[in-house]
Design brief:
Shape: elongated
Strand content: 25-35%
Radius of gyration: 43 Å
CATH superfamily of one domain: 4-hydroxy-3-methylbut-2-enyl diphosphate reductase, catalytic domain
Structural class: alpha/beta
Length: about 650
C-alpha cells in the first residue's frame, strides 16, 4: 500500500489565526467565548471547551464577563454595532480574505450596485457578507441557480451588479458561473474572492484523486470547504471517504496494492491528520514508507506555519490586485501577504495595475508579520530601492548619466524617480536657464547626474543642468564645425525682441532681423512668428570670433516685387487702394508689398491744390502704370492718363 498526502492540507491561514487568537487569550488567563464554533471541527471545539471556552450562538447571549471572539467566517456590520452599543469586549478574528469581501460589497452596494454572492446563503460566511450590503443582495450555490436567479429577476440584466464569491467556493463552479454572469448581466463587475489557499487545496485534491485508488478526506462534516474537497475527490475517485477522526478508518477496507490519497479541510488541525497517518501506517503494515510520508507532511506543515522575520527577503506570486493593495502568495510557504500601495512603488502617481500583473513573481521585503489584519505586510519599493542604491553607487563614482521621470515640483526644486529612488534636483540644477518654469518638467523623462548620495538617510541629489550643458556644448561644437553661409536649418523660435527673433538652430541661437521676417514692413516680429514656432531659416552671415549668426527667413520666391514684375507692365490700367497722402501726391497699394506713387499732377485732369481735395485713404481708384524703375524699385501711376483715355474714347 502506498500513501500520499496532498501538498496542501490542514489549517488555512484564516482558521489558524482564529484558533491562535483564542489560545493566546487563554494563555493570558482571559475567560473566552466564541460567537459560534470557532471552526467547523468538533474535536478542536471540544479541546477548547475543556480549556474553559464557551460557545455563544447569538450576540444577544454574549456574557459580559468574557471576551467574545468573532470567528474567521466574519459577521455582519450590525453585529459589530450591537456589541459596541452593549459595551461587549470582543476580538475580531475574521479572516482577512473575508474582511476584504466585506469592504468590496459595502463600497459597491453604497454606489448602488446589487450584490450577488456565489455561495451557500445559510453559511455563516455568506450571512456575514450579506450583513455588509446596503441594498439588494442575492446568493446562489451553483451555475444552475445563477441562471434561475437572473431569469426570476429580469432587472438584473440591466442594473449595476457586483459579483463576489464565498472564499471556499468551488473554483470550477466559479469559472462556469462567471461565464454565465458576464453574458446575462451586461452592466456588471466581478471580484475573484476565492481564497488562494482554497483554490490550491482544491487543485491538489483533484490531482490526488485522479492518481489514487481511494481517497481519505479528513475534516468536519459541517465544514463547507471540507465537503467541497470531498465532492471534488468523489468525481475523480469513486472510493472517496469523508472522516472526522482516525477511528472512522476501522469501517473502511483497503487492498494491499491500493494507492491511498489523504487530504484535509482548512479546519482540520495537524494532530488529527497525524493520527490518520499513524492509523494508516498500522493498517498498511508499511510503517517505514508511511512514516517517511508522514515526516514529509509534518515538515511541509511546519514550513507553512513557521514565522517570518522583519526585513527578511522573500519571493511572492501576485494573486490579486486591488486599488489599495496587492495580495501575494509567498513562494515555498503556505502563507499570504499583501503589499500596501504605498509600499509598491516610490512613484506616488502609480496605479497598482500599472506596476504589477497577476502571476508576476516579485522579490519582497517583510515589513511586519503581525499587523492588525493578520497578514504579512510586504514592500516591493524597498527591495527595488536597495537595488537602485547599488546602481547609484556606481553612477556617482563613474559620473554616469542616469534617466528618470520628474514626478513633482517641491520647495526648492523637483523630484525625479529613477531606479525606484526619489532624487531631489535643486531648482538651480533642474533647467538650462533659471527662467524656465519647473512645472513644465512634470511627467517628462529627463537625464541627470548624481551630485551626492547618502544611503543611510535615503537621500540623493542630482543635476539635470550638467547634462543639458554637456549636450549643448557638444551640439555647439558640432554646429560650428559644419555651419556655412547659405545652409538651411529648421530652428525653434526662442525669443522675440523689437528688432528681431532669436532662433535655436541646433545648440546655437541666431538672429533673424525684423527686416528679414517679412517682405512687408512690420512693427514687431510677433506679427509673423511666435515663440516655440519651428521655422526654416538660412545662414546669411557668420562671425566666428563673436559667435554671432545672422539668419534669413524671407524667401526670394515670395518677394512681392518679383511677383509684380512678372504680372504687370507699363501701360496696364489697374485698380489700386490709396494708402497714404502727402503734399506731392498719393501712395497706392498695387499688390501687398508693392506701392506706386500718383504725383499730384496726375491725380486729376485739372489743377488741384492738394491731393486731399480729390482722394482719401482707403479709396479704390483706377490708374495707369506709366513707369517702372527696376533699379530703384519704384512705380509711377496716373489717374489723369486713365481720364484722358476715357475722354478720347468718348470723342471717337
Amino acid at each position: 500500500m502506498k500513501i500520499t498526502v496532498a501538498k496542501s492540507a490542514g489549517f488555512c491561514f484564516g482558521v489558524n489565526r482564529a484558533v491562535e487568537t483564542v489560545n493566546e487569550l487563554i494563555s493570558q488567563g482571559r475567560r473566552v467565548s466564541t460567537l459560534g464554533p470557532i471552526i467547523h471541527n468538533k474535536q478542536v471545539v471540544k479541546e477548547l471547551e475543556a480549556a474553559g471556552v464557551t460557545v455563544t450562538n447569538t450576540p444577544e447571549s454574549a456574557e459580559s464577563d468574557r471576551v467574545l471572539v468573532i470567528r474567521s467566517h466574519g459577521v455582519g456590520s450590525d453585529v459589530y454595532s450591537y456589541l459596541e452599543q452593549r459595551g461587549v469586549e470582543y476580538v475580531d478574528a475574521t479572516c482577512p480574505f473575508v474582511a476584504k469581501i466585506h469592504k468590496i460589497v459595502s463600497e459597491q452596494s453604497e454606489q448602488g450596485a446589487v450584490v450577488i454572492i456565489a455561495g451557500d446563503s445559510n453559511h455563516p460566511e455568506v450571512r456575514g457578507i450579506m450583513g455588509f450590503c446596503k441594498g439588494a443582495v442575492y446568493a446562489f450555490k451553483n451555475s444552475e441557480e445563477l441562471i434561475e436567479l437572473v431569469s426570476s429577476n429580469k432587472e438584473l440584466a440591466s442594473e449595476k451588479v457586483c459579483l463576489v464569491s464565498q472564499t471556499t467556493f468551488d473554483t470550477e463552479e466559479w469559472k462556469k458561473s462567471l461565464e454565465i454572469f458576464k453574458k446575462l448581466c451586461t452592466n456588471s463587475i466581478f471580484f475573484g474572492t476565492i481564497c488562494n489557499a482554497t483554490s490550491q487545496r482544491q487543485i491538489d485534491a483533484y490531482q490526488l484523486a485522479k492518481n489514487s485508488d481511494a481517497v481519505i478526506v479528513v475534516g468536519g462534516r459541517h465544514s463547507s470547504n471540507t465537503n467541497k474537497l470531498y465532492e471534488i475527490c468523489k468525481k475523480s475517485c469513486s472510493r472517496s471517504y469523508l472522516i472526522e477522526t482516525a477511528a472512522e478508518l476501522e469501517c473502511i477496507s483497503f487492498g494491499e496494492d491500493d494507492h491511498i490519497g489523504i487530504t484535509a479541510g482548512a479546519s482540520t488541525p495537524a494532530n488529527i491528520i497525524k493520527e490518520v497517518l499513524d492509523r494508516m501506517s498500522e493498517k498498511s503494515g508499511q510503517v517505514a514508507e508511511t512514516a517517511a510520508e508522514q515526516n514529509n507532511f509534518e515538515e511541509m506543515f511546519e514550513e507553512s506555519q513557521k514565522n517570518v522575520n522583519r526585513n527578511d527577503k522573500v519571493f511572492g506570486i501576485v494573486e490579486s490586485i486591488e486599488p489599495n493593495a496587492v495580495y501575494v502568495t509567498l513562494v515555498d510557504r503556505k502563507q499570504t501577504g499583501y503589499i500596501p500601495v504605498e509600499e509598491l512603488s516610490n512613484d506616488p502617481t502609480a496605479k497598482t495595475e500599472d506596476v504589477v500583473k497577476v502571476g508576476d513573481q516579485l522579490e519582497l521585503l517583510i515589513m511586519r508579520t503581525n499587523d492588525q489584519e493578520g497578514l504579512i505586510m510586504l514592500s516591493k519599493k524597498r527591495v527595488d530601492a536597495n537595488k537602485g542604491w547599488e546602481v547609484f553607487d556606481a553612477a556617482l563614482e563613474n559620473k554616469d548619466i542616469l534617466e528618470g521621470t520628474v514626478n513633482e515640483v517641491v520647495k526648492g526644486g523637483v523630484i525625479v524617480l529613477s531606479n525606484a529612488i526619489r532624487v531631489f534636483i535643486p531648482a538651480s540644477q533642474a533647467t538650462a536657464s533659471r527662467k524656465d518654469p519647473l512645472e513644465e518638467l512634470v511627467g517628462k523623462e529627463v537625464e541627470f547626474r548624481l551630485l551626492e548620495i547618502d544611503k543611510r538617510r535615503k537621500k540623493a541629489v542630482g543635476s539635470i543642468r550638467s547634462v543639458l550643458k554637456e549636450r549643448a556644448d557638444a551640439a555647439k561644437e558640432a554646429f560650428w564645425s559644419t555651419v556655412e553661409v547659405g545652409k538651411k536649418y529648421n530652428g525653434v523660435v526662442k525669443s522675440l525682441t523689437s528688432y528681431g527673433a532669436f532662433v535655436d538652430i541646433g545648440g546655437v541661437d541666431g538672429l533673424v532681423h525684423i527686416s528679414e521676417l517679412s517682405w512687408s514692413r512690420i512693427k514687431h516680429p510677433s506679427e509673423v512668428i511666435n515663440v516655440g514656432d519651428t521655422i526654416e531659416v538660412y545662414v546669411k552671415a557668420i562671425d566666428t570670433e563673436k559667435g554671432n549668426i545672422s539668419l534669413g527667413y524671407k524667401k526670394e520666391e515670395d518677394n512681392p516685387w518679383n511677383q509684380f514684375i512678372n504680372n504687370y507692365s507699363v501701360g496696364d490700367v489697374i485698380d489700386v487702394t490709396i494708402d497714404g497722402l502727402s503734399s506731392f501726391g498719393a501712395f497706392a497699394v498695387i499688390i501687398p508689398g508693392v506701392k506706386g506713387l500718383i504725383h499730384i499732377s496726375q491725380i486729376a485732369d485739372h489743377r488741384i491744390e492738394k491731393p486731399q481735395d480729390e482722394l482719401s485713404v482707403g479709396d479704390t481708384v483706377k490708374v495707369k502704370i506709366t513707369e517702372i524703375n527696376t533699379t530703384s524699385k519704384r512705380v509711377s501711376l496716373s489717374i489723369r492718363a486713365v481720364l484722358a483715355d476715357m475722354a478720347a474714347a468718348e470723342q471717337e
